[in-house]
Amino acid sequence: MNKILNEDLLYTLSGLTTEEKNKLQGAQILITGCAGFLGYYIMHFLARFGNELGVKRVVALDNFKLGSPKWLKQIGNLDFVDVQTFDVASDDIASLPDADQCNYIIHMASIASPHFYRKYPIETLDANIWGLRSLLDFYKDKGIKGFLFYSSSEIYGDPDAESIPTDEEYRGFVSATGPRACYDESKRFGETMCMLFANQYNMPITVVRPFNNYGPGMKLSDQRVPADFAKNIYENSDIIMLSDGTPTRTFCYIADAVVGYLKALLYGKYDYFNIGISKPEISIRELAKIYVEKGRDVFGYAGSCKIKAAEEKEYLTHNPQRRCPNTQKAKSVLGYEAQINVAMGVERFLKYLKESARDEVIW
Ligand SMILES: NC(=O)c1ccc[n+]([C@@H]2O[C@H](COP(=O)([O-])OP(=O)(O)OC[C@H]3O[C@@H](n4cnc5c(N)ncnc54)[C@H](O)[C@@H]3O)[C@@H](O)[C@H]2O)c1
């Protein structure tokens, strides 16, 4: 296995308490959206530690709209992992032979890259609305132990300066009709459904709002900024910023983020959490600078950073100017706090890519 990925997975495991790990003993986990970026990491985590943790079965579903990765075929060969082609928005969950045995549900299916959700807006909405609804209906009386719904920091839209860092009670400043609405608004409605089903059926649903993850598993063709910059470094071409570089974000490395997702899944009660890193909040220009510096160290990168207008007309429409989470709630309730700062995370991501290239597994 890739050395960086292996170290990262061990780091993620070390973020769980003994009590949390014990909850996975005998667990049967259903995962939707297993072929994406977060799917890559979570599936590798389960492949690596599933037996050790006593996980009994993993039913992993994806419609493979954005491709069918080779790594998933390998993981699907493990005897406790069952990978199925399944569209969560339109296929019948009851038709899956093992679905009713599953007691932990992770609903990740939903295209997350703005470029691709603008290309497939109705499919994106469907996964978050009808896909979620069908899972909630199916599992509402099955006595499950945990249900994790992936919402997004995008539900906050473009907060004003007083609401940065943004806590979970901020109500959002979001367009219902803009080019990002298929994603933002379906996540918002999804959260409402989770709250209603948790109240009415006493379901252990936990909602996470991820803030800008990056790292191993992110495809170079993903078209989110950390992937675009990594692609430029990898190809030794200039980094192209498609904005003036002033919007700010905090970037949470995948190995840290997945600790938060697992803690939330195993929490087993209704609640909602920002999962991300609270600092540093940096501009896209500063992120590009980090990539250039780390690219020099890792790849001998010789390019520099340029600004260009995006070809996609709506690329910057309703793009939030600032995004930074208040993570106090996740810290006090889940005992979760991300540790890996962006410079270290970018370096690890690039080292991971370098090693993957040597093993010819770049996809
Ligand atoms: N990665 C982040 O930084 C981030 C930030 C905010 C929210 N999220 C949320 O986390 C989840 C996972 O994100 P990601 O980065 O892995 O996304 P991704 O786009 O890389 O992967 C999503 C996967 O879901 C699958 N999918 C989409 N619709 C489906 C359907 N109807 N049926 C079955 N499979 C379907 C896609 O084929 C893809 O493999 C998403 O719900 C996303 O909205 C992620």
Characteristic key phrases:
363 residues; alpha/beta; Rossmann fold; 7-stranded parallel sheet; two-stranded parallel sheet; 12 helices; 13 strands; 42% helix; globular; binds nicotinamide-adenine-dinucleotide
Provide an overview of this structure:
The two termini are 16 Å apart. Helix 4 (70-76) links the parallel strand 2 and strand 3 (81-85). With 363 residues, the chain is α/β, with parallel strands linked by helices. Strands 3-2-1-4-5-6-11 form a seven-stranded parallel β-sheet, sandwiched between helices. The protein has one domain: NAD(P)-binding Rossmann-like Domain (Rossmann fold), CATH 3.40.50.720. Helix content is 42%, strand content 14%. The mean pLDDT is 96. The protein is globular, with a radius of gyration of 19 Å. Residues 32-33, 35-39, 61-66, 87-89, 108-113, 123, 127, 131, 150, 152-153, 210, 212-213 line the site of nicotinamide-adenine-dinucleotide.
State the gist of this model.
The chain is of the alpha/beta class and 363 residues long.
The description of the largest β-sheet is: 7 strands, parallel
Q: For this structure, what is the CATH class?
A: Alpha Beta
Mean pLDDT figure: 96
Radius of gyration, in angstroms, nearest whole number? 19 Å
**Strand and helix order:** HHEHEHEEHHEHEEHEEEHEEHEHH
Q: Roughly what percent helix?
A: 40-55%
List the ligand species. nicotinamide-adenine-dinucleotide
In the CATH hierarchy, what is the architecture at level 2? Answer: 3-Layer(aba) Sandwich
The CATH topology is Rossmann fold
- Poorly predicted regions are none
The CATH H-level homologous superfamily: NAD(P)-binding Rossmann-like Domain
In the sheet with the most strands, the strands line up as: 3-2-1-4-5-6-11
Number of strands: 13
Global geometry: globular
Q: How widely separated are the two ends? A: 16 Å
- Counted by DSSP, the helix tally is 12
Number of domains: 1
